[in-house]
Amino acid sequence: MSKFILRRVFQSLLLLLLISMLLYLILNLVPGGPFDMLRTANPRITTTQIDHLNALLDLDKPLLPGTYCPVVAGVKQACTIDPGRYLRWLAKVAQGNFGVSWTMKIGQNVMSMIGGRIGYTLLLMGLSTFLAIIIAVPIGIYSAVHQYSKTDYIVTTIAFFGQSMPTFWTGLMAISIFAVGLNLFPTGGVSTAGSKGDIINAISRILTLGKAYPQIAGQEGKLILDGLLHVALPCLVLTFFNLAGWSRFTRSSMLEVLRQDYMRTARAKGLLERVVILKHGLRNALIPLVTIFALTIPSLFGGALITESIFSWPGMGRMLIEGIENVDWPVVQGILVITSFLVVFSNLLADILYAVVDPRISYG
Amino acid sequence: MAWRRLRRHRLAMLGLVVLAVVVIASLGADWIAPYKYDEIDLRHTYAPFMTPGMPGRATHYLGTDGLGRDVFTRLLYAGRVSLGVALSVTILVTIFGVFIGSVSGFFGGAVDSVLMRFTDVMLTLPDLPLLLILSASLRQFAQLQDLLGDLLGVAIIVFVLTIFGWMSDARLVRGQALSLRTREFIDASRSLGASQARIIFRHIVPNALAPIIVNATLGFGGVIIAESALSFLGFGIMPPIPTWGNMLNDARSAPLQYLFVQALWPGFCIFLTVLSINFVGDGLRDALDPRLKM
After folding, report:
1. With a CB-CB cutoff of 8 Å, which residues 185-214 of chain A face chain B?
2. How many domains does one find in chain B?
3. B103 falls within a domain
4. How far apart are CA A86 and CA A93, in angstroms?
5. B112 contacts A307 by C-beta, under 8 angstroms
6. Where do the domains of chain A lie, and which CATH numbers do they carry?
7. Which parts of chain B sit beneath pLDDT 70?
8. ipTM
């Protein structure tokens, strides 16, 4: 087992290295740089000035190890061997430093920008994943136990509907019905305009025992309520979308278990049907769900690009889109590398968890 | 045999009928549509449904958008673009995936390891962000703009969706090829002197056709959603060419009281098409391979 884990860890590291290289190369080979907008905004800016700015960001250096011949004020300087931008960047990333933002918040550290957004994404994604699982697992089990019943048909058909409705449509519909038509929820954002903070500030104030954000002292409860009101609609949209997948997974996993011999044995022992289903069936049906849950970890941190941008939710997904729109490659690289790391890590975790929760599986 | 089983699948047949209507309506857009897709009527903006048009012109059955363009007309033309993109991507993805998968599974060994590790890397790469980045940046190549003109947006989206779409086909076909290559009829044709290419394309691929068709059908719906998502975010096919996705994007900038009507129809078209194709795919899976029935 430990040999298997060691080999998988090594493979994962290799995979990550390859992915980081591909991501870096793709972003740096596509046309367009951080100063394109500067050039359109100010036609009097000269190419020499742009070159100077590019040199400040090391953008004149080669991408991969090679020779570097700097040009200072139009004069060619002596060439040197340069490790290249990719290796420099990789060395920094290994120390947890993703560089500074180019265009969105010029000069600000990417890690601290991510730190400012991650809470919002965790709140939204955590809440919607939790709700989806809590609702979908019982539905899936009921549907499997009563296979081919009316309820089963309704559940599977609704799951089909859910998977065919893109979040960008359900999102707009939710806004137009619940926020505009019925006026129950705000159309977007994270707090009411004019408030001194938001739900994340309030939660961090409570978690730090009243040390952080002194300006919102005494308003924590109000801010949390306000935040829950704001998170309701995006959360509803994501929950509905995830519900479809989770109920299908649960149903097919449970159906698989119901066919097994040990279920018949349990019934033959004279156990109550409820005990057979819940104790012998459910516990085995949950095994594949554990690994599927591990595979949703990246989205908990990476956020939902589309839903976050529809609801102006200041999470990671929306920051990624803003980064792409503003050619802010350090921010984009930071988010993509972190999400890829989580994808690789959770794949590894899923493999290991599978062996841990299911004693029938052994990786020799 | 398979057709008879598919006929019995009621939802699949319903899906097939709806899909046929959508395809015929969008192919016949030139004849059915009462307006041109970019025809502007600034006196009737955000008109509700069944608004009479200008004197002598057709009724705006589903109303108009913010520039007074007829929504019904635009939905038809948008369907043509969305279905066309999805069909091209599905065909390209299937060809590419089948090729990689069959070569990988048939030859095995080092070829298999290299191709499958490559597939793993492609599967791990975050696809939606990279689709956004690639489609935003490929647009800036001047040579491509001269070469393709108005079709550039469509070509880029087909290209990027193909790059990130072939992996599931490759894995599927590889699995099939791995089990097929040890079968006796493969040995038989090899001993008769068939070349490796002939064995792959005449024996392996046709025998793996059933799951390939099911996968392509279910993938088709995914491509429609992906294309709409890109166009919705403003990174896909640009106005004035309508797609269901960029019509939804237009709806976002409508005054809030019109949002419901503006977003309803394009989204409903996406939903209806994807739902139908998923039903057909589900029916095909049951019909072509009863063992897979869940």
Report:
1. 187
2. 1
3. yes
4. 10
5. no
6. 2-93 (no CATH), 115-357 (1.10.3720.10)
7. 1-2, 33, 39, 41-42, 44, 47, 50-60, 66, 68, 142-143, 148-150, 289-294
8. 0.83
B149 Cα distance to chain centroid: 22
Dump pLDDT digits (tens) for B12-35.
888 888 888 888 888 877 787 677
CB contact under 8 A, B232 and A160: no
Residue B60 backbone dihedrals phi, psi, to 5 degrees: -80, 90
- Kindly state whether B178 is in contact with chain A, defined as any CB-CB distance less than 8 angstroms: no
For residues B130 and A320, the answer to whether their CB atoms sit within 8 Å is no
* Within-domain flag for B8: yes
A66, β-bridge pairs: A82
B180: in domain: yes
Would you tell me which residues 322-341 of chain A have a C-beta closer than 8 angstroms to some C-beta of chain B?
324-325, 332, 335-336, 339-340
Q: What is the pLDDT of residues A275-285, one digit of tens each?
A: 788 878 887 88
Question: By C-alpha distance, which of B46, B78, B77, B79 is closest to B60?
Answer: B46
Q: Which helix (H) or strand (E) holds A75?
A: strand A75-76
**Domain range for B207:** 2-287
User: What three-state secondary structure class fits A109?
Assistant: strand
Give the tens place of pLDDT for each residue, A154-187.
888 888 888 888 888 988 888 888 888 788 888 7
Å between B188 CA and nearest CA of chain A: 36
How many Cβ atoms sit within 10 Å of the Cβ of residue A255? 16
Q: Which of A192, A222, A184 is CA-nearest to residue A205?
A: A222
Q: Phi then psi for A84, rounded to 5 degrees?
A: 95, 155
Residue B162 counted as domain residue: yes
For B31, the token pair is: 């004849």
Give me chain A's average pLDDT, please.
81
Section A297-301 average pLDDT: 79
- Radius of gyration, CA atoms only, chain A: 26
